[in-house]
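Here is one chain, start to finish.
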Amino acid sequence: MLRPSHLLALGLLLACTFQLTAADPDKRVYEMRVYYAAEGKLDALNARFRDHTCKLFEKHGIENIGYFEPIDNKERKLVYFLAYPDRESREKSWKSFMADPDWQKAYKASEVDGKLVAKVETLYMQATDFSAAIKADAKGNRVFEMRTYTTTDGNLGALLSRFRDHTCKLFEKHGMTNVAYWTPMEDQKDAKVTLLYLLSHASEDAAKASFDAFRKDPDWTAAKTASETKAGGSLTVPGPKGVVSVFMKATDYSPIR
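Its structure:
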């Protein structure tokens, strides 16, 4: 029979083990893929993912993270995120996926009346050290916001520090949920000046109310002023490219929704 002192020691050991595990960095490679559906083909593209592609991705070691459509979707986009242990695993998984007879059959059947995808864009990314644990989280009918920041030269590190030390906590304080934070991998375009992240909100109106309160928060004002004073100016480039916000809804088959 365990004595109280033994139980205490066991509890401390488990707590320490949990802390070490929770602190382990996320070293996965993430890929953001943006598909521009051909005219009239977005529903068919979603059906192919829902009925075939997502299952075949998992079969070949590709982790489905989230699938989204912009709320204002004039360009018929499907934006989705995948994860892999590393880039080499990514290449092997895609090679086996493309060669899979089940994929070839589903692909050919879906494109009998024409191609579903007009254009594809990809970006390889890594999670920041302050990103929330990125995992399937199906909470229901919420709105996602993808925000892309382009920093002034040499200030990506300062921007990341501000998020790590202040911004993320203040987002949560004002009702926003931190979903994921990424930077592009070194060989990607604009890798040294880009932060891309996902928030979730109850609605677009809730997002506006949260950001209004966030921007008026004295703690945010102090953190912003201090970081910009140290950097000698704004951490993001001026104009619309500095901060780009896209509101999205998760698809019905998205692990994160």
